[in-house]
Amino acid sequence: MNVRISRGFWRSDPAVLISMGLIKFLAHVFFNGRYGFFRDELYEIICGRRPAFGYVDHPPLTPLAARLSGGLFGDSLLGLRILPALAGAATVVLAGLIVRKLGGGRFAQVLAGTAVIVSGVILNFGVLLTNNAFDIFFWTLAVYVLILILKDDRPKLWLVFGLIVGAALQNKYSILFLMAGLAVGLLLTSARKQLLSVWLWLGAALALLLFLPNLLWQLNHGLPFIELNRNAVLYKNTVLSPLQFLGGQVMEAAPTGFLLLLAGLYYLFRAPGLKTLRLFGWAYAAVFLIFVFSGGKTYYIAPFYPFMFAAGALAVERWISRSARDWLKPCAVALLVVTAAPGIPFALPILRPEGLVAYSRFLGINPPSGERHRMGVLPQHYADQFGWLEMAEVVARAYESLEKDEKAECAIFAQNYGEASAIDFFGPRFGLPPAVSGHNNYWVWGPGERSASVLIAIGGREEDYRKAFAVVTEVARTQCEFAMPYENDLPIFICRGPQVVLRDIWPRLKHYS
Question: What is the mean pLDDT of residues 353-378?
Answer without folding.
Answer: 78
